[in-house]
Amino acid sequence: MTSDMTARMLRLLSFLQTRREWSGADLADRLEVTVRTVRRDIDRLRALGYPVDSARGHAGGYRLAAGTDLPPLLLDDDEAVAIAVALSTAAGGLSGIEETALRALAKLEQVLPRRLRTRVTALQTSAVGIAWEDRGPRADPALLGTLAVACRDHEILTFGYTTRGGAAASRRVEPQHLVVSGTLWYLLAHDTDKDDWRVFRLDRVTDLTHTGRRVPARPVPGDDPAAFVAARLSAAPTRHRALATVRASADLVRARTRNLGTRIRPVDEGTCVVDASDDSLTRIAQTLAGLPVDYTLDADPDVLTHLRAGANRTLAAMS
């Protein structure tokens, strides 16, 4: 293969990876060659193991299909840097897939050109994340991948599930969306036995089984999967109760506080109630500390004890 042909085929592969489908004429125009040359180059890519599908006719075209192995990807400089930084964040964060992200990052950094490695290093050292608490349950990358495919294909799955109370149950569901919240991953699915929407924590899922049966996609109530899951999580019973009556409008508190949209209830134009209830006393303290204005608190005794202890430690440190 000549160097010109190699460069042209790499450009062709890059085009195929950026769009769902290309016509032969469009590719020929981009590559400044004939349609016949495009066909020959497509055949060469196939011989190298790239699964390129083609359709004949006026509306036909070429598309890079999924194969049995992941083919090499061609990335421009900005894409390579973005992926490396994202993997670095996942490797050191709370996503639950740190080990997998670290392996992928090692492979990518090994082949990064020196000019890009410098950019990645600069971003990694200047951008940091804040972890407020111990890491929670780990997400299984294999389970995540399997569920993602099932959501895409709308395939009914069965699995074992451990409920909040520790009871074991079997579930048969139509998976729809995966949602991550902090350290935890959730599956939003329609439970076929209960004929209702359910939210499942992935760290409680076991013995996943494919049924091979595919069904049409169901519209999520409200057309916002993340908001639906957030609302369900907020409505779930919690171990510790903490309700803060805040002297500010709900819009103001929502604009200045993260991840509280579904737990803010307006009372009037200048007052709202923030439900900071949680299974974790630490998270309750963090939520209350993040409120932008004064508030009064109605909470369980164990919450008040935890908050007083933290406040006393702070006062002692200042004296």
UniProtKB/TrEMBL annotation:
A GO term for molecular function: DNA binding
Domain spans labelled HTH deoR-type: 5-63
Signal peptide: none
Keyword annotations of the record: DNA-binding, Transcription, Transcription regulation
Pfam families: HTH_11 (PF08279), WYL (PF13280)
Name this polypeptide is given: DNA-binding transcriptional regulator
Record organism: Streptomyces xanthochromogenes
